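Weekly sync, protein design subgroup
Attendees: M.S., D.O., the rotation student, P.L. (late)

Item 1: inverse folding check
M.S. brought a backbone from last month's batch and wanted to see whether the design step gives back something sensible before we order anything. D.O. pointed out we never logged the input encoding, so this time it goes straight into the notes. Structure tokens as presented (109 positions):
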């Protein structure tokens, strides 16, 4: 991956955090149109990758399909039960967005 792609991914992650800062919690799928309106057209796979990074860094909490109330293994809906459905901004993510903690080179605003 070249430097331009790394920079683009960092900007996409930053925009995801900014969108979550405005809504606190959102479905992962509804973040895609918000990103598109901001000029970032990304695939659902890229969104999952960004969510994974942001969660592992402690910036967001992701709720998977299997974590939802009423989910049962014997009644599996279509799709992957480990796929993120909702994302919520955590305090560390809000601090990053507002500049209260040291910048993360993998997230850019």
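Designed sequence read out in the meeting:
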């Amino acid at each position: 991956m070249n430097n331009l792609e790394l920079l683009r991914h960092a900007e996409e992650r930053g925009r995801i955090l900014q969108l979550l800062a405005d809504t606190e919690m959102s479905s992962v799928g509804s973040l895609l149109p918000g990103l598109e309106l901001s000029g970032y057209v990304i695939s659902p796979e890229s969104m999952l990758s960004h969510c994974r990074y942001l969660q592992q860094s402690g910036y967001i909490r992701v709720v998977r399909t299997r974590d939802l109330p009423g989910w049962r293994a014997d009644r599996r809906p279509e799709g992957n039960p480990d796929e993120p459905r909702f994302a919520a901004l955590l305090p560390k993510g809000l601090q990053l967005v507002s500049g209260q903690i040291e910048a993360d080179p993998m997230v850019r605003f």
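Discussion: The longest strand covers residues 84-89. The chain has a mean pLDDT of 90.
Action: P.L. to compare against the previous round before Friday.
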